[in-house]
Structure formats: C-alpha cells, structure tokens
Design a protein that fits this description.
It contains 10 helices and 36 strands. By secondary structure, it is of the alpha+beta class. The N and C termini lie far apart (113 Å).
Amino acid sequence: MRVLLSLIFVQLFFAAANAQPTATMEQLQKRFPDEVAVVLKRHENIDIKLSDDKLVITNENISQIMYLNEKSVNSRGENIPYDPNFYDLMKLKACTWIPTPKGYKKEEVKEFRDIKEIDDDNFYHSRRSKQFMYPAMQPGAVSECDFTYNIVDPTALGSFSFAFGVPATDMLFTVNVPDGVTIGYKQFGPMDNVKFSTTKKGKITTYSWSCDEMGKFEEKDFTWNTDLFEPHVFVYINTYQTKKDGVKKLLGDVSDYYKNNYKFIANVNKEEISDELKTVVDSIKKSNSSEEDIVKNIFYWVQDHITYIAFEDGLGGFIPRSANSVCTKKYGDCKDMASIINEMMEYAKIPGNLCWIGTRHKGYNYEQLPLPYCDNHMIAAYKKNGEYIFLDATSRFHRFGLPSMGIQGKQIMISIDENNFEVPFVPFTSAETSTTSDTVSVVINGSTLKLKGSVHMTGFAKSTNTERIKYAGAQNEKEKIKGILQRGNNKCSLDDYVIKNIDNKDKDLIVDYSLTIPDYARVIDNEFFVNLNFDKTMVSMKPDTTDRSYGAEYPFAFCSNVIYKMAIPDDMKLKKMPENINISDEYGELTLSYSMVGKEIVVDQKYKLKKAIVPLKDLRLWVADIDKAAAAYQQVVVLEKKSSNK
C-alpha cells in the first residue's frame, strides 16, 4: 500500500507538471515588464524508500521557463550535471513548447551530449553532465526539462532554491518519507513567501514547500556568497530503522557530521613514510632548530614542490591520498596537500591536525548547516601556545602564519582523534598585516608627469600581487606590473621596473619603478592644476546599494601608506594647497595631508580598510564616507608661472 500511494503521488505530480503551458508571452510581459524570462514552473520531488534495510532515494525534477525577448533565447542551451557515485542520472527528457495561434506545439530535444566536467578551478572529478540545445527557440517559447536522479549517497540530498535571476512562479519542493525514516531540514534566506506543510497518508509523510511567486534575485558587487540571503532549504536524513541493526543515525548535529567526515581520514597514512619524504624532513630538521621553523619549512616545501591540481573522483573527492603517493607524483588537491603536511609533521614528531572548512564562497557555519554542503576545502593545522596556525598550501605564495585569504572568518572543523574535534573560527587578519607603502617622487614637465617610486607589499597585498605576476609569465610580466602600478589615467606608461623578493615569502615584495603620465596636469594660461591623489582606492570600493539585502565583503583588511613628493619647478610657485582631510568610521579611514617641505609639495596619503566585512546596517554610512572621499580625492594643487623679471 505504501508503494502504491507513493506511485500515485508521483504520477499526479508529473501529470500536472508535463501539461503544456497555459500562460502567454503577452500576459507575462504585462505581469513582469522589462524581464527577459520567467520561470513558469519548478517542481522537485524526493522519494525515500526502505528496501532490505537500505535506503532507496530518487529525485525527480521538472522545470519550465518562458523566454520573453530575442536576447533571452540566445541562452537556449542547458547542462544537467550528475555523478554516478553520488547522484546518478536515471532519466532525462527535454522539449520546447512553441507558441502557435492554437496553443503550443511540442518539439522534443533529440540529441544529448555526455560531457566530463572540468571547471574554472581546474577541478578534475567524476562529475559529468548532459548537454543539449532546445530546438526552435523564439520569444514566447517555453523550455521544459524533466529528469530523475538516483541518489546513491543518502547524506547528500541537496537543496531546493526559490531564488533565480529572473522572476519565478509555481515552485514546489516535496519529500516523501516512509515510517521508519526521520528527516530534518534547514531553511535559509527570506522564506516569508514560502508555505510549508506536512501531510500523512498511510505510512508516508510528505513534507512540502511551495511558493506561488518570487521576485528575481541579483547578486551584487563585493559579494563572496549570498547563501544566507536567498530563500532555500536543505533536507537530510536523520535516522532510519533497519531489521538487522536497529536505528541507524546519519546526520543531525555537528558531532554526526564529524563522524561522517572522520571515516574518510581514518585509514590515511597508515603505511611507513617513504625514504624520499624522510630525507626531506631530515634535511629541514637539520637546518632548523625550533619546532615552529620546522613546521614553516615543511609548509614552504609543500607549497614549492607539490603542484595544486584540484580533482575529485568518486570517494577520492573526500579521501586524502597518502603522503607517499603525493610526494611521488608531486601534485595533489587540497586534501592531499593537507595529508602530506600532516604526515611530514608526524615524522618530525610535531603534532598536527587535518581540518575541514568551507571557504568564503560558502556562507554557512557548522552550527547552521552540519551537512556536506557546509565545507568544500581541507587544510592542516599546527597548534602553538594554544593558538592554531592554519596551513593551506593551495595558496602557493602566502607566508607561513597567515590563514589563506579565502578562509578568513570561517568556522573550521579540526580533527583531534576519532571522537574529538574542535570548531573554532579562523580570524580575519588585521589591516596592519597587509600593507602597501611607497614614497614617490613626482616631476612635472608641462602637462606630463614623471613618477619614480619603490612600492613595498606585505601580507595578502604581497601574495595576491605575487600570484598575478608569477602567473602572467615572463612575456606578460611588464603588462601585469603596469596594471598593479597604474596611476593617473589610462595613458600611463611603465618605463622601467625591478622586482625584488618575489620568491622569498618572509620578506616584503618590492617593485622599484618609473612611470610617465602624459596629458595629466591641466594648464590654463599661466596656471597648472595637478591632482596628486593618484591612488583613489576608497572610491573603487563603493558598493551598489540598489535593492541590496546584504552587506559588502572585501578580500582582506589592509593599509595603504603612500607619500608623493613633487618638486616645484624653478619658474613656478605655489598658488593653492588643498586642505587636509580626515574621513573615518568603524570600517575605514582616509587621511590626506598636504605640506610644503623646502621646494617640494608633499602629500601623505594614508588609507586603512579596518574590516573586511561591512554589514548591511552600516552600509549607508560606509557609502556616505566613500562619497566624501571621492570629493576629497578631487582636490588639486595649483601652481602658477612666476612673473618674469624686467
């Protein structure tokens, strides 16, 4: 009876979903003016069954999208991802509903290409996708996609989102749960427009989330993720009853999730460390006496000798490879780099830890979402004087002692042993950790300026620019340096440069340089107008506040301290000096100090981004101060020609 009821529900669900569209383009254009498309329908049903003490889970999806103009129909392709190890694709059908005077005509998709996915981060994994094009697309046409997954991994049921980049209607997410199975769910974002209900028929309980209409969600600038601000729900299996072993627990709290994670590292590095790795560690120990220096040089060795290639392949996406294997191959993903660091520390008799963490592209912490969707990264850790030093060798150019930029502020799961773990938060680095300092001499010749300086960079300012320079290659190095040092206007040219300490992670990155900026000073009669605020960093950080529902998030806090010294030509004199400026709030501070030292005009420009995150409640104040800075940056020094002696 239970199976019959489930089948009846699915049949009704998809009979309704597969009906041809009833709305017309004219109706939707009137209802949603200026929109390029509308999601007409998005239904998903997860069906859970118990069979011979095993969970059998299917996930059925159907969606319809109407395209409202020529621009939208250009995006007529679709990819349906799947992974045979986790969510295998059982069925896929797609079609276009073509508008006619008598209704809609259906044209099926006939060709599907099976593609192995490789994403922008060089991830190599077992995920694949079915790619296809909708035929006969035109304004007013409706694309329909109908597919079913077999969920192989019961800990990975996924999420349902009510947020799209276009308006959406008729959204329904249902989960059918038999007696003997308990589930939980986690909701995020504004769910006021979403209705939730549970119904029970026989031995099946159906959980249902529905929404008649939801406006579009647009990702704003200065955003790492929008996970907590878009309406969506995660469902997970908490327990299920078996005849043989009684109740089995899967997920629910942070401890459950740690147990789920620990099984992937329980048998890693059980074999003896290889002679090659022993030699490396012995050499490091011979050259370094302190424990911290040994750990630092193990970390640097992995950064320099193990190439980061992120890849997943079935359970290989969760299980670190052995240190011996990683050392032999000289490449690995984040888990492999954590594995080899930890094993090298173990051989050196220094305690270390393997850790899981979600980067800043994941908005959740473990208390909020103790599920596999909370994290996407592994690193190692070393504890010194009660404080953890985080060792993320995938960030190839950053120095020991700094967390990688992408894990600041995130909760980390640190493995102690089979039953014990810690979940502290990785701190954000201070502004003083990442500094850019420069003293620049400025020579004016008519409307052209010549600049000569020596910029020093530390912390993330160093590591991010080192990465830009290194990955540019010798052929494009000068152009990349020019982009880093660009001043004044787009006519700025880089005349000469020398890079120092780029391969020494513990020293400042230094670039000595000279620039020419033509057509920069304005000359009117006998007066010369020169804006010595070449770097307008604060203005470049202004977020778009239109319909914004979350704050602004920047890569890292930092300090910029630049002094410009412009010698006044012998045939000129100072006519006007700008006023000194100080703009400060909880998140940033700008100081512009102007002075005359001998025959030089000196501008001391200091800017500090005190915090990497500005919450929504303070965004208006933040933007107001940026606008004040924009005005301050426009102040000019005025020189005038001296009167000629007669």
